[in-house]
Design a protein that fits this description.
Shape: globular
Oligomer: single chain
Number of helices: 3
Largest sheet: 5 strands, antiparallel
Bound molecules: nickel (II) ion
Structural class: alpha+beta
CATH architecture: Alpha-Beta Complex
Strand content: 25-35%
Number of domains: 1
Distance between the termini: 43 Å
């Protein structure tokens, strides 16, 4: 278990489509090691999710954990640490919702992203058990953000209104207390 360096925008690994894990890899010691490194790194960086490519490993694995005590995202419902292996996203309601997003791989930047409001994710857990989760609201956005990483997509690719891109301090100063506007 170790805190790994987070790959930043500009690193080509963030732009690759990550490969699926094979049946022989799911449940392996190597996957558990990767999972531990992902959680350690996410927690050390204060993130609520991280995907394997963000620590330089181009495989279809991501984790989300929303801690009640998170001060980056104080109003969010807690979500126990969950690993998504070989996930597939299905949109259940394509009505768009908008949230401010940030990313450990895009330092000091926030932007408004519009995404479908409800999704289902089919995946396997670390042991290879088939799982499915339906999510709406902020959790649906977090899931789509993290799983985008496995397709080589960063949130800034989905920012339509670049006039509202902001550093974290200017986000807090000018934007945080305003309602997010309707989809553009
Ligand atoms: Ni991210």
């Amino acid at each position: 278990m170790a805190v790994r360096e987070v790959c930043k925008i500009g690193n080509p690994v963030l732009r690759e489509v990550a490969r699926d894990l094979g049946a022989e890899e799911v449940g392996s010691g190597g996957l558990h090691e990767l999972a531990a490194d992902l959680v350690d790194t996410m927690r050390a960086e204060g993130g609520i999710g991280i995907a394997a490519p963000q620590i330089g490993v181009s495989v279809q694995v991501a984790v989300i954990e929303i801690d009640e005590a998170s001060d980056r995202y104080p109003d969010m419902q807690p979500f126990v640490a969950t690993f998504f292996v070989n996930p597939r996203v299905t949109v259940l309601d394509d009505t768009e919702q908008s949230f401010w997003e940030g990313c450990l791989s895009v330092p000091d930047l926030r932007g408004v992203v519009s995404r479908p409001r409800k999704v289902r994710v089919d995946y396997v857990d670390l042991e290879g058990n088939a799982r499915s989760i339906e999510a709406e609201g902020f959790l649906a956005t977090v899931l789509q953000h993290e799983l985008d990483h496995l397709q080589g997509v960063l949130f800034i690719d989905r920012v339509r209104d670049t006039t509202r891109l902001a550093t974290v301090s200017d986000y807090q100063r000018f934007w945080m207390d305003r309602p997010v506007e309707e989809p553009i």
